[in-house]
Amino acid sequence: MNSYKQKIIKSFDMAVSYEQSAHIQKIVAKRLAQFIKTLDMDCSQPLSILEIGCGTGLLTQLIIDFFPKAQLLITDISPYMIERVKKKYGNNPNIQFKVMDGEAIDLEQSFDLIVSSLAFQWFENLEHSLKTITTLLNPNGYLLCSTLAQQSFKEWRQIYAEHDCHCSFQSYPNVETLDSYWSSEIGGGFWQSETILESIKNGIEFIKGLRAIGAHIAAKTHKPLSAAQFQKILTQFNEDYGYTTYEVALGCFRRFAAKGFFVTGTDTDVGKTFISACLTKALGATYWKPMQTGLNCDLGDSKNIQILAQIPDAQIIPPLIELQEPLSPEEAAKSEAITLDIHQLDFSLPTQNRPYIVEGAGGVLVPVAGSQYMLQMMQKVNLPVVIVARTELGTLNHTLLTINVLRNHHIPIAGVILNGNLNPANKEAIERHGRIAVIAEVPYIEKITDQFIAQFTKEIILFY
């Protein structure tokens, strides 16, 4: 363990008045707990949960309250912090404790939920650590975390800069940089930032508060100031500010349910089912159409896929919902006096060696029931989305709108597949305006040939 980490341990081991001074930490722990309540997780189940950087247990208690049947592993780099949490919760048979550096995880088990509140800003290589931590998640498992972001302590940074002094505060990434740290190969994640202003009596009281919680470790590149320089900085802070800024980034990452893709379209008759057949054939996948409409005028997509992709029954999962009219699921269900509810349907994917191709019914905002749309089904299925679009006039608007809706709902997008006559201008425009890759361009063909699949597979495998 390097000297920087040893300083962190020593500092937190000496933070005997942590809870009395950890005002921001309490606020952030509560905010993170509120965020956790919005997740699609059954708190009545005996889930496995890991906490990284427990401190004195501010978030721990909230997690215990919300997940009373969970098996918890509580960790921190500071032995003193672990001992304090043990005194509070050591009699709970569902809780284990471990002194552990979150950047040097030595665990073999996996978890349904990993939480961490204001610990990641101490990591020396957060990008690498996030990729390591997310591999510990079970399929559909979540990582919920918080860390300080770029604008934290901006008042102090401004004063240091005006006096041409090297700032002692750590540097933190902005939200865009944090977003780039997620491992898109195994799941999808996002960050959102919130600003908290802490009222401060004066600069000395602020420094004392940092020491009280063990958070006064200077950046590794910091050059100590003279007493005169430090006094000038304190004086200006007292004159200009009665507060300091904390920019807190809340992060949410969810591991994909399985390998594969969810296929959606930008419009009717864009070739979504045909592309699903191509993907199923190319990847040797299992196909599933959870909601099927229009059975009174068609064999149904499952049968069509089986014929197009030439796959056996074993690679087809029957639909959950089968409706007769060629309408949206909501309208088709009404015609049969059926009320649909996405939350009452089981969209879990059984563990298997094959990937999955799951096809939606129409586009992302096709109504299912009430305020439920195909979006909610995508979130339940939890696979990266492939958008199938035309190459012709009008595709830019439809495709860019679909991309924006998915991103606004934090649904991971694998890319776009264009179906139709090649159109280089539209391909370039979609990639530039949508900031997304066009995975493949599929010309109109009547039959899925082995030669076509061989070429299609080469294109798809780069994004798989």
UniProtKB/TrEMBL annotation:
The family database entries (Pfam families) matched by this protein are listed as: AAA_26, Methyltransf_11
Which EC number applies?
A: 6.3.3.3
Where, by residue number, does ATP bind? 269-274, 301, 359-362, 443-445
Asked if the record carries the keyword Transmembrane, the reply is no
Q: Which family does it belong to?
A: Belongs to the dethiobiotin synthetase family.
Q: How does it assemble?
A: Homodimer.
- State the protein's name: ATP-dependent dethiobiotin synthetase BioD
Name the lineage: Bacteria, Pseudomonadati, Pseudomonadota, Alphaproteobacteria, Acetobacterales
Its gene? bioD
